[in-house]
Structure formats: C-alpha cells, structure tokens
Specification:
Chain lengths: ~150, ~150
C-alpha cells in the first residue's frame, strides 16, 4: 500500500531522434548512426558535452504498447520464460522511458550525431546526460544467463 | 528550428524512494541504503529482478530548481567554469529525471532495498531496469578532468 497518492508528472521533450530505424526492433543498434535534434532554445545547454566520448539518452518510447503487461518474454523471444517487465528492457513498460548509452560522434550547434541509439525515428528525447565511467558503470555486476546470452 | 511541435508527455510514478537522505546533496551516496516502495499493483512486474546484482533507477528530482538554468557549475562548485547543463549531472535540468545505478540488496514483494541511491526521501520513481554489463557500460569511455576529478 502506498502511503501517499503518486502525483502525475508532465514532461516537455527537449528534442527528437532522427534515425533510419523506423520500426521497433529487438536487434542491437550498435552500428546505427542517428541524429538527435535538440530544441534550438536549448542549444547553449549542450555546451561542453562534446568533451565526453559517450552520452546517456533518455527518450520516450512513443510506439510502445499501452497499457504495459506485467510479464513479458525477454528480448521478445516467445521461447523465453515470462519475466516481470521491470526485470527486462522491454519497451512496453508502465513509463516507457528508454535509456541508451551511445557514442557521441559530433555536435554541431543543436544537433548531436551519435552511434548505437536504438530509438526509432521520431522518438521524443527527454534528457541528455554525460556518461561518467565509474558512476554509470559497475565492475562486478551480475546478470542472469537469460539476459546476457545472445 | 524543430520541424514539429513537441508533445507534452504525462507520467504516473510507479513508486517512491524511502531514504535517510532528506536534502539535495552533492556528495556521493555510495554507502547509503534506501528502499524503493513500488505500487503494490505492480508487484508482479518486479518478478525475476532479484536475479540481477544491480539495477537502474529512473526517478523524478522533485526538489529541483525550476526552470532549469542553461549553464551550471559542475558538482555545484562555484570555482568550476560554467558548463551546459546537459554536459553535467546537475539536478536542475529541463526534465529533471535522475538516473542512478545501484546495488540491489534485496527484494521483498513490492519493496526493493538498494545501496548507493542518491535520490532524496520522497522522490517519485519512474522506472526500474536491470543493469546489463556491456549494454549499459562502456569500456573505452572518456570524460573530461573537470567531471571525473574529486
């Protein structure tokens, strides 16, 4: 039981993904190059980001299935046992926010060119953060075989 | 110039942080133990999460300064040069979503006990994801000295 009502939160996207990925896919997007077009009014907020090799992109999975199921097959594989959706990276989740760590290839004004973003074309972008080794990475992390196996 | 209007997005938090950290702080929270109380209606969505050693918590930085400044001093240190807010992890950002990677100590029903969460008490939780080594970590990432130095 929650001891207080959870308030509704409103977000305004800061930009949009431009990608050749047009449909949701379960394949890795490791080689895909995309652009993130940030609202021009926020261009100055990107200054110094180019000093980082990698960035974290939080985006809205706008084509996700709603409402989200409680259990899903990991990686969309029907052979896999059903798992709680929060134990997976399924795009169909209660708040469908995607989190991708991508290589920052270039920044030109309000446009970021990145590699490895698995967001589809048109995805609203919610936040951009620098990737910080040690803070965002874990040396001794353990994940079950059903998640890490190809 | 954006070529389409960015739509407003509405989120309903999935839970709340219970922490001894009551005020925003710039110190690392590496040793802090916290609880994440998830909406009981979503308990089944957590199943199998306990197979992961670490999880990613997306939360709402509900005490952040609004509107966000375009430039901030990294780590809140006035001696540092001003940087674009997206080049920092400042809590005062256009969409103040915090992203923390934390150790999952235990799961009991709808309650997650975690270590290292820098969210303050009462923070609304937006999403829980498993941390996947290799997908969420980068081997060769580079960050500037002003960010990585203590």
């Amino acid at each position: 039981m929650m001891d207080e009502k959870l308030p509704e939160i409103r977000l305004t996207p800061i930009g949009t993904v431009r990608s050749e990925i047009r449909e949701p896919t379960h394949r890795q997007a490791a080689d895909a190059a995309s652009e993130i077009v940030i609202d021009e009014a926020l261009t100055a907020s990107l200054d110094s980001l180019e000093e980082f090799s990698h960035i974290i992109v939080l985006y809205w999975i706008h084509k996700s299935r709603r409402p989200a199921p409680q259990k899903v097959h990991p990686r969309g594989n029907p052979q896999s046992a059903l798992m709680g959706v929060f134990a997976t990276r399924s795009p169909s989740r209660p708040n469908p926010i995607g989190k991708a760590t991508v290589r920052l290839l270039a920044r030109r004004g309000n446009i970021l060119k990145v590699q490895g973003l698995d967001a589809i074309d048109g995805s609203p972008v919610l936040d951009i953060k620098p990737y910080i080794p040690g803070y965002d990475s874990v040396e001794d992390a353990r994940a079950p075989a059903w998640m890490v196996k190809e």
